[in-house]
Amino acid sequence: MDIFVESYLKTIGGHLKSMSGSQRKDILAILESRIKEICYFEHLSTYEAIKQIGDPLETARHHLRVAIGDTKGMSLRKLRMMFSLYRTSHSSYVVLPILSVLSLVLLVTGIVVIIVGLVKAGSLLLSQSTFEVLMPSSREGYLHDWVILPLVVGGILALIGLITWNLMTKYLKTVGVDNQKFD
Question: Which of 18, 122, 141, 146 has the most other CB atoms within 10 Å of its CB?
Answer without folding.
Answer: 18
